[in-house]
Amino acid sequence: MNEPTRLHIAIDGPAAAGKTTVARATAQRLGILYLDTGAMYRALASMALRTGTEVDNGAALARLLAIAPIEVRLDDGAQLGFRISAGGREFDESELLSNEVTAIVSVVAAQPEVRAAMVGAQRRIAGKGSVVMAGRDIGTVVMPDAPVKIYLTASLPTRVERRRVQLQRSGVDVDGHRLAEEIEERDRLDRTRAVSPLTAAADAHVIDSSGIDAEKVVDAICAFVAEGAK
Ligand code: DC
Q1: Residue 190, ligand 1, Cβ within 6 A
Q2: Is residue 167 in contact with ligand 1, taking CB distance under 6 Å?
Q3: How far is residue 10's CA from residue 202's CA, in Å, rounded to a whole number?
Q4: CA of 176 to the centre of ligand 1 (A)
Q5: Distance from the CA of 136 to the center of ligand 1, in angstroms?
Q6: How many domains does the chain have?
Q7: Pocket of ligand 1 contains residue 186 by CB under 6 Å
Q8: Of 28, 65, 134, 160, whose CB neighbour count within 10 A is largest?
Q9: Which ligand 1 atom minimizes the distance to the CA of 41?
Q10: Is residue 3 part of a domain?
């Protein structure tokens, strides 16, 4: 029997560029599953906070993952579009997006031991079937053979506004929170880390979504998918 054809779509880009909205809407349009890999790094950051684990101690973070592996279940009906848990406890969106988690997640994600574990888990998910995966290193490292790769960007003011709306919707306090500084600092850390830094894959389609609504970006991605299927 022939293997069913798997459709893998990689969406990378800087913080708050609209990746999760676009990735989820693309997956819904194509009838396939969606995973925001940032949530996995955020879940580990949250576990580090709760257990008092040093956020730059890669070996200790890897031990935490070994004791309570992060489990992801792709589920279109869930609040996030998938379910994410560890040690039998499910994480919700407001915990993952909390200011405390956001402040440390890039340091956690820069640890080589953490990246090795996360990339392995993400590749296993991709190996199971069609998926739209959003992150920073999906087209370059996690799914380098994905037939459709998107690098999604937007201007800083656009990204600040999108993050503000997302936080308000999730009930996270944005008062006095320096969104522009936080986004720029996280981008700097994500772009300059030694292991799989944020960068566009050589074969990625770069889309600047400033001033374009998500549906138009989804149209463009679906056109790339249709082109690839010809
Ligand atoms: O997309 P996000 O803001 O939820 O991601 C949180 C952090 O996780 C981000 O600052 C960098 C890291 N990340 C990563 O290093 N690799 C990914 N594939 C996804 C996220």
Answers
A1: yes
A2: no
A3: 13
A4: 23
A5: 6
A6: 1
A7: yes
A8: 134
A9: 8
A10: no
Sequence-distant (≥ 6) Cβ neighbours of residue 151 within 8 angstroms: 12, 13, 139, 200, 201, 204, 205, 206, 207
**Residue 10 Cα to ligand 1 middle (Å):** 14
Nearest to 81 by CA among 143, 136, 124, 19: 19
Which residue range forms the structural domain that includes residue 162? 8-225
Q: Does residue 2 lie in a domain region?
A: no
Alpha carbons within 13 A on the beta-carbon side of 5: 7
**Cα-based distances in Å from 160 to 80, 136, 182:** 20, 18, 10
Adjacent-strand bridge partners of 149: 10
Question: Which ligand 1 atom sits closest to the C-alpha of 137?
Answer: 18
Tell me the CATH number at 163: 3.40.50.300
Closest C-alpha among 190, 75, 62 to residue 125: 75
Residues 130/7, Cβ–Cβ less than 8 Å:
yes
